[in-house]
């Protein structure tokens, strides 16, 4: 009997692969057409372009500055049109549909409820409308033959003082589609240890959390997130490579922190294209993803912000394939890494790995 052999590693074929996504921002993944329509509905007149193509190009070019702080400024426009029940639920619904169409079978999508209160919604209402949108989008995706399990992380802004409140909100909704907590925003000057109260509360509640660390700021940010805050995962964490020295003969030597992260299997939510945009790395080809993967850190592939990065999970995986020569078995390993690291229950993780991810890749592996 003959077998067809592996499928070609094209973007279209990668789109057919079952993918797991841990780091995706709801307010960074809107369709440009939706931004325009919601802006018209709510009377927001500060958009920098008046058609979807030009607006999408503006977001990508404005985010492509090499500075995390300037990158974050683009979110003023997306957050502005996500202040109403209809705006929140629509963005969440379309997020689920778009991810499913790209072959994502499991997604943890995060957003900061505290940024969506301008029209008078309460924090609870913001979360309720967003979760309703995710549920509707997942139902639509299933009806289209592209089922997705989509859950939510609630983010507190590290420059604000509402992290304990958002942590409590996370626990309040943890049986309704919220699976974890996060802090995000500019790292420099806002260390994670400023939010110890929130992280201690999450631990007392046996609840999961991740922390944006090691993106624009270096090893001290990662050290604090782990040693002081007890994070389950590292949001980005790309700067852990600063603690690895590769000798002239190619032999790597890991520092104490890098060894600890690897030994403890702390997942790295790596976002290759975004890391280039914010200046964390010069290019995808120079990204430490491959070094970390070869050293068997628990690396995962993520989108971060699909609108600002003009990207998708398939595009991120293709970029890694082109940069480092990965094959289907590598992409499967990165996907299983992500699924193992998710914040849903252990039996649910195994079910998706065994019944969805492994069979899906088996087809592509031939």
What is this structure's SSE topology?
Blueprint: H1 11-16, E1 19-25, H2 32-42, H3 52-63, H4 68-73, H5 75-80, H6 85-101, E2 104-111, H7 123-143, E3 149-157, H8 163-172, E4 178-184, H9 196-204, E5 210-213, H10 219-228, E6 233-236, E7 244-246, E8 252-254, H11 256-263, E9 268-270, H12 272-277, H13 289-294, E10 299-301, H14 306-309, H15 313-324, H16 328-340, H17 346-365
Parallel strand pairs: 1-2, 2-3, 3-4, 5-6, 6-9, 9-10
Antiparallel strand pairs: 7-8
Helix pairs in contact: 2-3, 6-7, 8-9, 16-17
Structural class, by secondary structure, is alpha/beta
Which band does the percent of strand residues land in? 5-15%
The radius of gyration is 20 Å
- The CATH homologous superfamily name equals Metal-dependent hydrolases
What is the H/E string?
HEHHHHHEHEHEHEHEEEHEHHEHHHH
Percent of residues in helices comes to: 40-55%
Domain count: the total is: 1
Low-confidence stretches: none
Q: How confident overall, as mean pLDDT?
A: 94
CATH class: Alpha Beta
Distance between the termini: 13 Å
Q: Provide the CATH topology.
A: TIM Barrel
> How many β-strand stretches?
10
